Amino acid sequence: MNNQEQQVKKAFEEKFGAAPRLFFSPGRINLIGEHVDYNDGFVMPAAIDKGVVFAVAPNNTSKLRVHSIDMKEDLEVELSDIKKKEGWPNYILGVVDQFQKRGLPLQGFDVVFGGNLPSGAGLSSSAAVECGLATALNTIFDLKLNRVAIAQLSQKAEHTFPGVNCGIMDQFANMMGEKDHVLLLDCTSLEYKALPLQIPGYVIMLINSKVSHSLASGEYNIRRRQCEEGLTILKQHYPQAKSFRDITPEQVKQVKEHLDADVYRRCLYVTEEITRTQAAASLLQQNKIQEFGQLMFATHEGLSKLYDVSCPELDFLVEQAHQHPGIIGSRLMGGGFGGCTINITKADEAESIAAAISDVYTSRFKHAPEVYIMQTGDGTYEMLSQL
Ligand code: GAF
């Protein structure tokens, strides 16, 4: 058992005086396909080996009692009184509310949870909390939801309580991830292929700008609304199109004057990114990594100039990456407005490149970035061997 698991288990035993079941729920990275999961596109995420550990047990009361190790706070609520609150409790209460809305019977339970995902880094700690708790409740109360249903329930929980109208990517990667694979996910049908992630001689390096993003700040939901508005107009011009994936960037350009200027740029980005992700999937399967990396740079350009979800710090990190031949692809990852860039980097140069980029970044922004070499991992699981 690693330190994180031991700490969570011990905290549970001390607080609740019972033996819990333990669950691990991972964060995620995404190679390419950004802001297209809620636009019927394709994405290419992977679960990682860092995440959130849950210790959970029924408590024979009518209450849920939760302790967050990272926030050093408690939450105690009657199951009959589930309402929105401020901050982290919403990720818990939203999940409980979704079980109840689906008529799935919960009884009182105790939870302690704690993680090792850097917060605000764009590694989806929110999906890790939602899916981890949902899996634990599904297991201890034997509710028989399958893994995709848990991802969907968790996505809905994020919409209704924290209030972020996210797509399915993060929760799907969290539940369906497979070590050493990325998932090529069709966000319309939820069909997916687990593609082996073998890039000999390269590592996946994240550089955390340490600018804290806040999807809930509203910009994410605004992007989503702009895309919906754009698609409605595009469908009037292209009645055969059911979704963005049936519309080409060229077709968006042809009706530019009918779209609001920002809505036009959002739609152009989305149609380009959907095409790009399909091309990237095919390149990855042919081991054409250099070309794959070029598409990552192109994604960043689109996220920065058309989708307006970058910031000076992320643009700077990607510009720096461009100047190092040892990095073959780089872009902001996740919702944007801060968090990390993802970089495919030569393994034997990663350390020196990280040091060089950290130096120039620190002199430019007066705070240091953090660098992580990522390992993929499995989707949420119960740590059975620890029982
Ligand atoms: C966040 C959301 F939760 C995802 O659904 C996805 O839209 C992502 O931003 C951007 O690709 O992580």
TrEMBL record:
Domain of life where this protein originates: Bacteria
GO terms, molecular function: ATP binding; galactokinase activity; metal ion binding
UniProt entry keywords in alphabetical sequence: ATP-binding, Carbohydrate metabolism, Cytoplasm, Galactose metabolism, Kinase, Magnesium, Metal-binding, Nucleotide-binding, Transferase
Domain Galactokinase N-terminal: 10-58
Protein name: Galactokinase
Domain GHMP kinase N-terminal: 90-177
Name of one Pfam family that matches: GHMP_kinases_N
Chain's gene name: galK
Cited SUPFAM superfamilies: GHMP Kinase, C-terminal domain, Ribosomal protein S5 domain 2-like
Domain GHMP kinase C-terminal: 281-361
GO biological process entries: galactose metabolic process
Enzyme Commission code: 2.7.1.6
Top EC group: transferase
Family the entry assigns: Belongs to the GHMP kinase family. GalK subfamily.
GO CC terms in record: cytosol
